[in-house]
Please model this.
Amino acid sequence: MEWLNVSCLARFSPLQMYAARVFLVLLFFIVACCIHLLYVALRKKFADGLEISVLVKVMGNLMIIFFISVAGAILAPFRCYTHPNGIRTVQEFGGVLCNSEGEYQKMLIVAGIALIMPVSFFVISSYVTIVELPKRMQKADVAFLKTWSFLYYRYRPGAAVFSVILLLRNIGLVIVPVIPGGAIKVLLIILILVVSILITSFMLPWRILECNYMEASLLAGVTVLISMGALFMEDVDVDYVMQVCLALFIAMLLLICHVFVWGFAKYLRAKHRKPFQYFLCHQKSGAGAFARLLKCELIRMNGVKGKVFVDCGDLQDLTKLFGYVGFDMEHLIILGTKDILTRKWCMGEVTTARIHNVKTVVVALPDYEPPSETLVEEYQAHVPDVTELAALGISLAAVQETLRWMRELPTIELPGTLDSRLTRAVCKELVVMHVSPGSMGKNVVQLSNDAEDELDKGTRSVNRKAQYNGSKVAILVDYKNMEAVATALVLQLMVSPLVLSSGGMVPYIMTANEEAMPTVQVIVVICSQGCFGNPDIARVLVSSAARSLTVLPIIAEDGFRFPTKDFYDEVLATAGTTGMLGKPSHLAAVVKQVFSEIAVGFNPQGYSASVQDLEVRANTIAFRLLGGKLKPMSLEDYHPTSPEELEANSLGLFLPASKSTEANAKMISASL
Model:
C-alpha cells in the first residue's frame, strides 16, 4: 500500500488503511480465481472438469509466499510504542492510541476476523501433512498428492513435516515483535533461529543438499547480526537481563545434572538388566529361519522379560553390532552350523562376547562340529578376510582364542528332526540354564524325540487324528530340511492368529509318512531346494491331487529353483525311486499344477526378513487361505491299483477324483 501512495488521490483513515493492508491478499486470490476460470472457459472442449486441484495449488503457494506479510500486517495493532509521557500508540499508526477504545477497538475486531486466514491455513496444512499425507501415500492417491504438493515438493521424501515446522518458525517470528521489552525480543528471536539451525542440520529437509547448507549458514549469519545489534540497544532493563541470564545458567546446570543422572541410571539399569536378554548369533543360510523361530518362541515364554536380538530385525547400523553384543546383551546364543566358524562377523560377535564376559551357550545343529586345533592354527588360510576385524579392535589371535574357548561352552545338541515340541524344549533349556563365562566345565544337553519314538506308529497316528481332526489346512514340508521345517513353524505361528476365527482353518504341519487328514481342503507346500525329491512329499502331493485338494505354494528360500524342463526331467527321474502310489508321471503333472498357483514368498532366513515384512506376507497367506479362491488339483486316470491304495481309500485318506471333486468344491466354497 505504501508503494501505491494512494494518499495522493484520497484520504483514508488508519482503520481503512489497516483493513486494506490486511485484506490485500484477498485481491490476489480473486485475480488467481478469475485467471483460472478464464482458462477453464477457453480450454479445449475435451478437457472436462474445473480442475479445482490446480486452483488449490495456486492458492496454497500464494498463502505460503505471503504468510509472514499477512500475519505481520494482521498483528500491527498489537505492536504499540510507549512514549516518554506513558501514552502508548500503534507503531504504524501513530495517531491511534492503544487503549481498546474507538478506532483501536475496531482494528482489533478486524484483526480477529482476519486471523481466520493464517490460522486456518496453518491448521489445514498441519492436518494434511501429519495425518492425511501418510495415509494417502499408502493408498497411492496420486490426485491428492498432486493437489497438496505445494506443501512438500520442495523437501526430500520423508521430510514433508518440515513444512509445518517452517510455518511454526514464521509464526514465532511474527509474534515476537508483539511482546514488550527489547531484551526479551532479541532473546526469543535468537532462540527461534538457533532451534531452526539445529532442525535443518539434523533433518536436511531440502531436496538439494546445498540448500540445506545455505539455509543453515544464512540463519547463523542472521543470528550473529541480531546478537551484535543487541549491543547498541539503549532502553535495556538491566535487572530483567540479569534475571534471564541467571535463568539460562540454572537451566544449563540442570541439563548437565540431568544428563549425568540419566547416564548413571542407565549404567545401573544395564548392569542389572540389559536391553536384550538374548542375542542369536547365526549364519543366515544355515540357521536364519531357525533363529527367527527361536525368537518367536522365546518372546512367548514367561521367563523372558527382555528383548531377543536378531540382526535382520533389530540392527540398522552394522558399526554398532559389536557394541550391542558387548554392552546390551545378557546371553549370547550361538546357533552352531557347519559354516558359522568361517563367518568373520559371527566370530567377531562371539569374540566380543568372550572379551566382555557375556554369558554364552551353543545350540548345536546336526551338522555342527566344534573347532578343531587344525582349524584354529590355519584359521587365516580358511578365512582370509578375518583380518578386516582388526579395524574394529579384534585381532586374529583373539579369534583363535575364542575358537578354543568355544569348545568348553555349554552346549545343547539337537537331533536331525525339528518340530514345535523340540523348539519349546530348546527355549526352556535356554531360559533355565545358568551360563557362567570364564572357567566353566563343559555342560552338554542332548535333546531328542525319545518320547515320540517310544510310541508305535499306530498310537502316534491315533493321537494326531484326535488332535488335528477337523483341520482344513495342512502344511507340507521337507522334514529332512531343518530350515524348511523352521520356516513352516514360523508360518504356522504367524498365520494361526489371523485365521483363528474361521473354523478349522488353523494350519497343522504334517509329519513324515503321513497323509493329509480327511477334513483337509488346502495343502500349503513349503518349497525348499530339493523338496520334491523327498518320497513323502511326492506321495502326499499325488494323493492330494487324487482328492482334488487345493494347493498354495510358499517359497521358503531365495535360491529355490522354479520348474523348468530340466526340473521336470529330474522329478521324473527321481519319482521312479520314491515308491509313491500311482504312476511316476503323476508327480510331474501335480508339480506343474502346484506352480499354476501364484506362489507367496515367506523367507525368515532372508537378509531383509524383518518382523514387519513377515507380518505382511503372513497376512497375504491368510487372505489366500480364507478368500483367495485357490484352484483344486486333479489327477487324471487315477484308479487304485494295489491293496494298499484300496485300504487307504477305505480309510478315507484319499478318494478318486471322480467321486470327490464335487464334495471338495462345496467344502472349499463353504470355507472361503
Remarks:
- The chain has a mean pLDDT of 80.
